[in-house]
C-alpha cells in the first residue's frame, strides 16, 4: 500500500500528501536509479563517465563522438550515440581551464535520447513540473534549448519540447545546479561551438567561425548586440550611454588586445618582453637595439626597430637599482611606431581624449615629449604630436595587474568609459592582457555607463586629488558631492563634544583652496577646524602605513584606539577591517583553530564590509568576491561545530555566499589570486552540494 499520493492545488501545484499515519524513521521512497543524471550546466570539462574534472594531461577523446573522457573510462552516456546521429561530426573540446558552454547540453541530450531508448522513462520525465509556457518560460531555458538545437543540428524535435526539458531539469533536480554560461566567454562560434576568429563588428563580443553562421545567428543576436553608443556633452565630454536595458552581470565589452601596452612611466628597469624586474645578474641586452631583456625573452616590442631607425645607436642601461627615466619613452615610442606599422590603430589612438592644447598641456607632457624627441633624435614628428600621445597614454591608460610589476595598457572601446566613484561597471583582465567589462548593476536605457579610475576605498579628498594628478579633471560625481557618501559616513569623524555621539563633516569636500569649510557635528553643531582635522588624519595615516596589518592584535589595537575619534565606516577603519577580515584564520591550524567568538567576528566583518561596498563601490567585484569567499569559509566552519541540526542551514548560507563569490570572480585570470580563488570556489560548490545532499538524505531516512 502506498504511503503517499499526489495532490494538486493553485498554491504549490502538484505535491504529495500522506495516505496514512507515518512513523518516524519510515522509508517512504527508495529510487535506485535516476530518470536522468549528468554534469552541472556550468561545469569545467569533466569526464562523462565518472564526472572527474579533466585537463589536457588526463583526458582522451571518445573514438566515436569526440566527447572527452578520463583515461580510466571507456564508455559514457546516451550523448555519444546522439552526437553521432544528429550532429554528424565529432565534438572538439580543447580548453580545459574554464567552465565550458557545451556541458549545458549533456543532461538535455540524455533526456532527449530517452524518446527512443526508453519512451516510458521519457513520459515520466515530461510529466514532471516544468511544462513549457511562453508566458512564464525564462530566457535561460529558451537560450539553452536553442543552443542544443543548433549544436546538435536537431530538426525533428521542436524547440518548445527541448525548452520544457530544460525547465524540468531546472525545477526538478536534486543535485544539479543549473547556471547559464555566456557563450562570449571563449573564442568559440556562437552557432556550432567551433574555434572562431571572426567577431561581430558591432559589439565585438560574440565570435563566429564563418560569415554563414553569423548571418544565421543574427536574428537572435540582434536583441543583445551593441549595448551602448557614444554621446558627448560639455560636462564629461565623450562617454557611453546604454542603448537598451542592461542586466546585472552582462558582458558589454571584450577587447582581447590593447592598442598600446608597456611599462609604467616611473618604473625600475624591466624586461620589455615580459615586464619582469631586471637586475645586472638576470638581464641581457637585445643584440639589435640594446634594450635590456630577461634571459628568457628573445623579442620585445616596436621600440626595437624604432631605436635602430631613429636613434641609430644602441641603448645602454647599466643602473638597475632605481626608477629609470628612459622607460617613460617606451609606450610613447610604441605608439609612434604604429604610424607606419598599423595606421588604423594609430588613428584610433589619436582619436582618444587627451588632445594637445598649449593652454592646458602640463609641463610633464611637454617634458616627456621633448625627452623622447631628443633621446631618439626624431626630426620628422612634431613635438605637439608626441605631447598629445603622452597625454592620451596618461589619461586613458589602465593599470594591468597580470604582470609584476603591473604594466599599462590603452584600449580602443574601453577608453570611452566615463569615470564615476560609484561606477556601474567593473573590469577584469585576461591572462594575455585583454579587458572584459561587465555591468555591476542593472542599467536603464539612456543611462550613463561608468567605470572607476581611482581607488574607490580611498576617502573623497584622496580620490579627487589622485584623479586631478593622473587624469587631469575634478571629480564632481554624486558620491563626491555628498559629504556623507550616501549616508555611510566614509569620511566622518566622531564628535569631540563629550558623549554627543554625532558625526562631524564639512558641508562639502569640493572646495580645495584656503576656503575649505570646517568640520561640523551634524547633531550638536560643534565645529573643528579643517586644519586640525587634516593634521590629525595625516598622523593616523602615517601610523596606518607603518603598522603590521597581517597581525590580528595590531589591527584590533588600531580599531580600539581610534574608535572614539573616527566613524566606524571611516576609510581608515575600513582599511584595517578589510585586513582583519582576511587574516583571521591564516594562523597555524587555520579556521578550525579559531574560537567561536573570533569566527563570528570574521563573519560579521565580512558581511558589514560587503554591505558597505555594495553602497559605495558596487562594481568592486574583486574585493566583494574575496569578502564573500572568506565569509563562506567562516560560516561553513561555524556550522560544522553546531552539529547536524544546524549544519545544513549554515551550509546553505555558506553556499549562497560562495555562489556569489564565484560569479563575481569568474572572469578574473588564473594568474591572479582572485582567479585562483574563483576556481577553488567552483570546486567547493560541488563539495558543498554533495554534503547538503547527504544531509538531506540522512534527514529523510530519519523521518
UniProtKB/TrEMBL annotation:
Start and end residues of each SET domain: 226-454
Q: Answer whether the UniProt record assigns the keyword Zinc-finger to this protein.
A: yes
Task: Give one GO term, molecular function aspect.
Answer: protein methyltransferase activity
Q: Which Pfam families match?
A: SET (PF00856), zf-MYND (PF01753)
User: What's the source species for this entry?
Assistant: Aphidius gifuensis
Q: Which UniProt keywords apply?
A: Metal-binding, Zinc, Zinc-finger
Q: Where is the MYND-type domain?
A: 189-225
Database matches in InterPro entries: SET_dom, SET_dom_sf, SET_SmydA-8, Znf_MYND
Q: Tell me the first and last residues of the signal peptide.
A: none
Could you tell me what this protein is called?
A: Uncharacterized protein
Query: What CDD domains would the database entry show?
Result: SET_SMYD
Record keywords: Ubl conjugation included?
no
